[in-house]
Design a protein that fits this description.
This protein is mainly α. It has helices at about 5-15, 40-50, 50-55, 75-90, 95-105, 115-125, 135-145, 160-165, 185-210, 215-220, 225-230, 235-265, 270-275, 285-305, 310-330, 335-340, 350-355, 360-370. The protein is built from 18 helices and no strands. It starts with a helix and ends with a helix. The structure holds magnesium ion (MG).
Length: about 375
């Protein structure tokens, strides 16, 4: 059998000098005996997969679409896609795949129901109390505080590097200004971009399947140059979609890996510390692919996220979140007992926020209708 120590030595031997090695982890807040067979990051990944908040991702929307069918992405499938891209890119760069996987699986645990519209509504409610809602912070809060697995500590007691990767996970929607000291590990940076690759590619897929996006419009984009050449007249729509995805995904993944390696060489980065102290994100697309990605993002905003069909559902989601918040804030007796107990030591709006943010879309809708 292969022991944890074997795995740790393999990492030291094989991984890049700037990769995070599990044996050199800064550890957990509460000390625990090590696992005989799993490294700390493998164990963290397992803790995430087995926690309740992870299972609830299955009932949370990614983009809230009319006719919400069996094949559209949920936060759960999105998180798995992010972990897959993150692991692949980490492998290509000889980084710690287990760390990338753990961060990828946990990165959206704090998401509200109803996609980004839900997050916006929650943020508006929290602003009334001079507070805010930001899903990365909430993901951190879930694994650090809200999940329950031991009588000795709160949360999942994950390793420092996984927690750090969650806090500094940034996307267009995120507000990272609260955590501006050091740069994230290269593994966390890779997952951050993997998140973008994942949502751009699955939103193309979901957008086309829902009929909101039109393939002919999409094929005008520079990023679809190769897909356009592959698509033959008479190809079924599912084949057309596959041609787009199987050209766009590798284009983004391969460019990110190549350009990141180029950045590391150019800046002479050789250690983990140098990654932390380097002022810029090193995991980045090359300039031409960055430009193509921006064009795609703008396209998705205009034609998909802001499409009337999507907007209408978003607005419904916002109404539900705000109504639930007002109702539960005014009458805390309606909170489950577990949450009522917390009111002795925590502010009302924080407790209400934690409860609603944890809900699935279905649970929130049902509660809204019941109340
Ligand atoms: Mg995400």
């Amino acid at each position: 059998m292969i022991s944890r120590q074997d795995l740790e030595s393999q990492e030291v031997e094989v991984l890049a000098s700037y990769a995070i090695k599990s044996a050199q982890s800064q550890g957990r807040k509460f000390e625990e005996p090590e696992d005989p067979y799993r490294t700390c990051f493998q164990r963290d990944r397992d803790r995430v997969i087995h926690c309740k908040a992870f299972r609830r991702l299955n009932g949370k929307t990614q983009v809230f679409i009319a006719g919400y069918g069996d094949h559209y992405r949920s936060r759960l499938t999105h998180s798995m896609e992010v972990a897959q891209f993150g692991r692949d890119i980490a492998r290509m760069l000889n980084l710690n795949q287990d760390l990338a996987e753990a961060i990828g699986l946990a990165h959206d645990l704090g998401h509200t129901p109803f996609g980004h519209a839900g997050q916006e509504a929650m943020h508006e409610m929290m602003e009334q109390y001079d507070s805010r809602f930001e899903h990365n912070e909430q993901s951190f809060r879930i694994v650090d505080e809200l999940e329950c697995k031991s009588s000795h500590y709160k949360g999942l007691n994950l390793s420092f590097e996984v927690l750090d990767g969650l806090l500094k996970h940034r996307t267009r929607y995120d507000r990272p200004e609260a955590f501006d000291h050091l740069m994230p590990s290269l593994e966390a940076q890779v997952v951050n971009v993997a998140d973008e690759i994942a949502y751009q590619s699955h939103d193309i897929d979901d957008g086309l399947r829902s009929g909101i996006l039109k393939i002919d419009d999409l094929l005008q984009l520079e990023i679809c140059h190769d897909a356009k050449k592959r698509i033959q007249p008479g190809d079924e729509s599912i084949i057309q979609r596959q041609h787009v995805l199987s050209t766009v995904m590798p284009l983004l993944v391969n460019d990110l890996a190549k350009n990141t390696e180029r950045n590391l060489k150019m800046k002479g980065i050789e250690t983990v510390q140098a990654i932390y102290e380097h002022g810029d994100q090193l995991a980045q697309f090359s300039a031409p692919v960055l430009k193509m990605g921006m064009e795609l993002k703008d396209f998705l905003y205009k034609k998909f996220y802001n499409a009337p069909e999507v907007m209408r559902y978003n607005q419904e989601g916002m109404v539900v979140i705000k109504a639930l918040f007002k109702y539960l804030h005014a009458d805390s007796k309606k909170l489950p007992q577990k949450y009522q107990n917390r009111l002795n030591s925590e502010e009302n709006h924080i407790v209400v926020k934690d409860y609603i943010a944890g809900m699935t879309d279905g649970f929130a809708l049902e509660l809204y209708e019941r109340l």
